[in-house]
beta-galactosidase
Amino acid sequence: MRFYGSPIRYVFLLGFALLTAFSSTQAQTPALRSGIDYPAEIENPEITGINKEPYHATLMPYASLQEALVAKRHASTYARSLNGQWKFNWVPSPEKRPVDFYKTDFDVSKWKEIAVPSNWEVQGYGTPFYRNLGYTIKKDFPHIMSEPDKRYTAYNERNPVGSYRRDFEVPADWNGRRIFVTFDGVDAGFFLWVNGQKVGFSVNSRNAAEFDLTKYLKPGTNTIAAEVYQYTSGTWLEDQDMWRLHGIFRNVTLWSSPETHIRDFFVKQDLDENYKDAKVNVVAKIKNYGDKTSKAQSLTATLYDNAGKEVAKGTVTGSSINAKQEQELNINFTVANPAKWTAETPTLYTMVLTTGEGEIISQKIGFRKVEIKGRIFMVNGVPIKLKGVNRHEHWSDVGHAITEAQMIRDLEVIKQGNCNHVRTSHYSNDPRWYELCDEWGIWLVAEANMEYHGYDRKFDEEPTMKAAIVDRNVANVENFKNHPSVIIWSLGNEGGVGGTNVGAALTAVKTIDPSRPTHYERYGTGKNNPADLDGRMYGTAEDYIRVAKNPELTKPFYICEFVHAMFNSMGSLDEYSAAFDNTPEILGGAIWEFQDQALWNRRDPKHPILAYGGGFGEFPNDHYFIHKGVVAWDRKTVKPHYPEMKKAFQWISTEMTDVLSGSFRIKNKYQFIALENLDGAWSLTENGVEISKGTFVVPRVGARREGRLSIPFKIEHPKPGAEYYLRISYTQSNKTLWADKGFEVAWDQIKIPVNTATVVEPKSTQPVALSQTPQTIKVTGNGFSVSFDKKTGEMSQLMKGGLNVLTANGGPKPHLWRAAHRNDDMWANNIWEKYGVNNLKFSLVDIKAQAVDMFSVKVTSTIKGEGKEGFGVYHTATYLIKGNGSVTVDNNMEFEGLAISLGRIGVRMMLNKDLDKMKYFGRGPLENYSDRKASADVGLYDLNVNDQYEYEKPMDRGNHEEVRWIKFEDNKTPGFTIKADANLMQFSALPHTDEQMFPVEYKIDLPASTSTVFCLSTKTLGVGSASCGPRPLERFQVWANNSRFTYTLQLLNK
């Protein structure tokens, strides 16, 4: 029985007395706090495990070479899954647990069952917590059972315990073999029994806990029991930004090996100075688990290519191994010019290890060399760029118990989004993830399960935490050291500034694997950073360029988190990507984060919500901060963020060099592959309508090179006032692992400069009549009328065929804010509330009307919107109403008070709710904002008000930039068009007002729509990423400066 924790040699951390207390026949060592009896082991940070097998590479013995070449661990003859239904009991606190449940004569027949793997909260037990920063228990290290504030959920659920039990049988042909059980993930810690005998204990939720069960088993039916605690000493180091969910949430596998077994192995490889031939060093640790000395051991390492052909081979013979001891064997050989592994060319070989006693173990490997030259990060001698995402293991319907199919779907979405990189934030992932990343081609920053954000620097130097911090990093490296996809080890996330304890972890990591660079964000930059990479979170692109170019720095610069994608956000991503491309010292970075971490709360079937913090009534919580994914929870619904990422990260770009000859420069930004197996297509549009198209042969441009391209488009008879855009597209000519044939990998839309005649608007030849009463101004034409309220100065009616396009009080008036994006909460919304921008009090200053001629009438209205703290706006709107049913509105806004930041400068109209369908010419089809529009092509789009992407927390959405005109049409209500003047405008059309959306927590709680809320703006605030990063850049901000804009509204026949 061992206590593990030392970085190199697993050493005893406690004395023999505690070892004796933890014999297989006794209960846990008792402790008492707040009147609650609980096992002392769960609270001792120096106990990282009891009787666990030492950490090692993920492995599985196979019964044949054929099995080994396939290398599907769970399909091995020597593996049996213990997944499935287990008997289960949940209690809110340890003193209520069924203490003797592990005994074979304890009756669990009336217990309910729970699926393994799963999180018990998802199955309806206990309370899920969302926390970003801080703990869900009282902050009283090392005590996890201290009585918290009565508001805390943990006051009543002090430390929930899940008791799991099931029966199983060991295959008869395993007789004489060593039998182990591996728990790939249990949150947060657990005790294990087999057949009523205590086996061991483990903390560390996200690395495999493995136990030798051989001596506890018997022929026939066996009983396994696990007692899982929600809170352990590991809780202090698992303060990650995620839902806190618990239970046995990864695979449980029973497997067997010979008595003398390859316990661990490390396939080390290095390329020569020309990055051609490879030197291979296989280091294997063979352990004799038996009670007698084994015979001399031999080991053979055979390398096979992906066709199953033998490529290279080596053999070594060792000595005999004493009982319970292990021996290290080394095999060295050279491989002539193997295919190299990269994220773009993920070629794998299979290394098969065979002992003289017949044990067969295999590992998929890739040949690649990671090195740093100066400040440049290189793989196989080539500078690389990382463009990717931080990814939590989370799906909203299952929590953390994700399936292989869900992992594959994540990879499809990641690769299709032009990402080549994932940071395993902020813990070791399921072992299958690393295997899939090897196969699919992903550069991984493999992060250890360590974050103590809520205690900041406390554990930097805390001596009792050193073993645990080191243990988690050792586990991460030992488990995943053979994966070519892993190119950087991350020591953890957001835990003070490192100190002695993280320093010890760094030493341990480098001792095990000096071949890979290391990173720890809290080390920052400069001479005090002992890791191999500099880094910093959440700056602007300009900040990063400036830091990267600092001549005093000596390391590559890696941005582990940037453009915080919470709700409506992720501004200026294209600028970051350009900074990566154009700054050699910047390695790249990972967006925070990949997916919305919402969690379905269906406990009230009448009110299902994709919950964020507080959505289960938990306290404390961090509210909205969990909804921040580039992709939606289901990986199907397209969030506006995703195409923006795909566009910003695309690896091919096209620029026009000569419009007359149709010449273009094509740039291949892939780092290892030429432009091959691609089809090219182009499309020319005139005012959004395709007028010609064609295909082209994509030139074979080498990696990191430029080429030339000619496209034979022609514009023979330009229309007056027309705009012409050429779209160039690159699609896959073959099916790949991650996308079908025809999938578009890159595109560019280029505006074609064409001199066109000015459009001359026809003069109106239809008369209009002006009439006034003390209350109203009315202008009447052929089948239409426009009315104004003299008390408010607002347009009150816009009538066509006897029907009013506007709802009550729906005429255009100034609208300067928006229902805050959660990024706005961090700065702008406070300004809007302080100065009353979100609740302007409107009053009439002046209104007058005059007939210009028999065909037109001019109405001029000035109103004042008064806020607070001296802020206000005067809006003078001059309406020129013509007999053809057009209303040209010239708007002049003059501000008083401070020139504060605004959400927009524009007007809002409340339209008949039947006007919910429109066509527009502008950027689309998804919502876009001034700093998130690179992926939104200029075109002609149809839009349904009720069919736009909707955030779970209601907020401003649906903006469209650079709009020329919008046309509302419906078969129930008269339609109209709105056309911008020479200055393009922005618009949104939503079923709810900002005032309705802002206070509502979940979209399901919004009231029924009563109108189409139409906002037309001359300027809109960008989205930025200020929830955990920079606000929109200066040029994307809107200030209370005097503004003038014009639009024309044209009524249509019904």
Q: What stands out?
A: The longest strand covers residues 841-853. The CA atoms of residues 870 and 897 lie 5 Å apart. The radius of gyration is 33 Å. Confidence is low (pLDDT under 50) at residues 1-26.
